[in-house]
Amino acid sequence: INILDEMLMVALSKNMTSKMKTIVETIQKQQDLIIRDLFNDLLLVQGVAGSGKSSVALHRIAYLMYQGLNLKLSANNVIVISPNPLFSKYISNVLPELGEENINEYTFENIFLKLFENKLSMKTKSENFENIITAVSEEKRNFLRSYDEFKGSFVFLNIIDRFIKYYERKLVSFEDVYYNGKIIEKRELAKAFLLSGKLDMPTGKKLKIIENRILEKVRNNRIERRNKIEKIVNELNNHEFEIMSFTRLLSAKETQALTERLRKFTELESFELYKKLFSDINIFKKISKGLDLPENIDEIISCTNTALGDPFNIPYADGIALMYLKIKAEGCDLFSDIKQVVVDEAQDYYHMHYYILKDLYRYARFTIVGDKNQSIEKSSELPLHDDIISIFNFEKSSKVFLNKSYRSSYEIGKFSAKLLGGENSTEFFKRNEEEPAIIKSSSISNLQEEIVKTIEKYSSQGFSSIAVICKNRKEASNLYFNLSNKIKIKLVDYLDYDSVLEGILILPVYLAKGLEFDAVIVYEANNSNYNTEFDKKL
Fold first, then answer.
1. Over the stretch 199-249, which tens digit does the pLDDT of each residue have?
2. Taking CA atoms, which of 13, 124, 153, 288 is between 20 and 30 Å from 294?
3. Do 115 and 27 share a structural domain?
4. Angstrom distance (rounded) from CA 58 to CA 412
């Protein structure tokens, strides 16, 4: 597709709306190649900020659904993995505008609730990052980040895999099973069946087969057993029940009691198993032997034991690891109908996330988009972007680069590049606007007055979406409290995702990722508020 830059210039100059816009009229050649790719099982898009990668991924889904008669693909077969519900809301308009039915959008937190049937819940990704960004000290922040990095690492994934095998060998407390006065299953035989390797399936499913096999033996002996019970009842004189009814009742209660005893070793509870991994330090050290553990592993273990005390407030990193353990130990067939998965903000996920996606969506193709230079939640030294292809291990995979940014003006792009320092390979579309301004003030109250004036100026220029970006939730809340009686403004919070993304907004920086606005004001961008390498990435 050959689009003149003048046409693109006009489209980019239009005001932002509360929803992501379609880009049909302005699709560039490299973007179009991504959209129309029917060959690859995994398409990994490394795109700079503002390169249109998220929009391209959704246009790709629309194209694939348009080809639905050939590909047998409908909206029910497609899913988008979003970083938070706010982003999901932002992109929700694209497919309907392209004439396609909207698709399911999930966060990992949504998947967790579905997997555990709302019996457990985990902290959100946004809440987790808020805890990191507001840490009382650099030491505490570094610990929280190391905690997350370890829990999302290939090393910890390896530990969980080993632990499941250890559980099979050492922790399943098999018992001899008696019924009708005789042994119907020896514990040695049950254990041998579990460890035989004949069945290529998760531990939980193998244990369920053992349970069903034993209960089948119970059913085969039930008539003989019921006759014995009836004979005993006949000999009793101290009851007023009808003999056959009483016999059936006693038989049912006996079977129920036996089933409950069985399930003490055939029922696998993933959360209890996960807690066991950390509560028994000897087991942890034994199964992690030879692996490259972090220096602060003892502190991580101690912190984990404390954090797992509340099953409805599980730390985000542990929730992700617990999902992996459950899928590996128990299996999951909830998403067998999914054929296409889009993953956005790929750079902020760890190895653990991608192994979960691989196992959950076993029959799907993937479009994964992100920018390794935009990772604010984890260390940029982690080369995960290069590992994704090897994790999924598809026959046909491709990595595509989008290096041209269309979102910001040329002046904003250059200004941002200076802040980061060093080499910058981003190519900025030549759309000239005003130079970004640095507003200084002698006091917070004066600075806030300047913000009000700046917002009023932008509004008078016709800008319909203006964002005031703060470092964290508390700063955003305080600023909202001080400005809300002076100007019509909305606070966007991770506890309230119903906000409409238009008008004048105040929000923490991590909720602004991936969103677009006509004008942006960064609040308190000074040396005392942003003074570390971590802060620079924000």
1. 788 999 999 998 899 888 888 888 787 778 777 877 776 666 677 787 777
2. 124
3. yes
4. 26
Question: Cβ distance 75 to 102 under 8 Å?
Answer: yes
pLDDT digits (tens, 9 = 90+) for 453-484: 999 999 999 998 899 999 999 999 999 999 99
Q: Is the pTM of this model over 0.90?
A: no
Find where tokens 């129309």 sit: 36
Q: Where would I find the H helices in 267-312?
A: 270-279, 281-287, 297-307
Confidence of residue 516 (pLDDT cuts 50, 70, 90): confident
Domain with residue 52: its CATH number is 3.40.50.300
* Region for residue 433 given its phi and psi (left: phi exceeds 0; alpha: psi -120 to 50; beta: otherwise): beta
Asked if 12 and 145 sit in the same domain, the reply is yes
Structural domain including 190 reads 166-268
Question: Is residue 429 in a domain?
Answer: no
Residue appearing with tokens 């308190």? 524
Give pLDDT, residue 422: 56
Sign of the C-alpha dihedral, residues 232, 233, 234, 238? positive
Distinct helix (H) and strand (E) counts, the chain: 25, 14
Residue 148 shares a structural domain with residue 186? no
Domain membership of residue 459 (yes or no) is: yes
